[in-house]
C-alpha cells in the first residue's frame, strides 16, 4: 500500500463500519493515479469467497476525481457505466464520507449493533486534522504531478486512531 494512502483508507474503513456498513474487502492501487476501493458487503454473513453472481456496492476514491459509488461490474461490463459521484470533497473527513454512504439505505440498510470496534467506537474521537488541512485540494490529473495540499492531507492520517490501531495489531501479530 502507498505510504500515505493506507492510513486514510483505514480511517475510512473504520468510519464506514462505525456507521453501520459491513465491509467485504478493501484495496489500494497506485499506478498513474491513486485509487482506493472499499467493497460493501450485503450483510454480516456476506462472504466474498462464496460470492456467486452477486454484485456488491463499492466505494471508490481516485486522487484526481474524488469519491464514487458503483456496483461491481458484471462480466463484460465497463466500470465507467455505473459510477455515481458521492457529494464529498476530495479529502472529506472519513466520518463525513461514511455519513454520505450511510445516508443511502441501499448501501447501509441498518445501523450495526453486533459488535463495537475495539477502542475505536468513535473512530475520529480525539483526532482532528492539522491546521491548514485542505479538503478540496487542486489536482491536475496529470501523471506525476504532485499536489502538496493533497500529500499533506493524506500524510495527516498517519496519526489517525484507525491507522495506529491497525499498525499495533500488525506488530502484535508479528507482521
Structure notes:
The chain is α+β, with helices and mostly antiparallel strands and 175 residues long. Helix 1 crosses helix 2 (94-102) and helix 1 (5-19) crosses helix 4 (161-172). A hairpin with a 3-residue loop joins strand 3 (57-62) and strand 4 (66-71). The protein has a five-stranded antiparallel beta sheet with strand order 1-2-3-4-5, with helices on one face. Helix content is 26%, strand content 18%.
Features of this protein?
five-stranded antiparallel beta sheet, globular, 26% helix, alpha+beta, single chain, 4 helices
Query: pLDDT average, as an integer?
Result: 78
> Element order, helices and strands?
HEEEEEHHH
Strand line-up in the sheet with most strands: 1-2-3-4-5
Taking all Cα atoms into account, the compactness measure Rg is: 16 Å
- Give the count of helical stretches: 4
Q: What is the CA-CA span between the terminal residues?
A: 14 Å
Name the helicity range.
25-40%
Shape: globular
Strand tally: 5
% residues in beta strands: 15-25%
Biggest sheet, open or closed, and with what strands and sense?
5 strands, antiparallel
- Low-confidence runs of at least 5 consecutive residues: 111-121
Tell me the structural class: alpha+beta
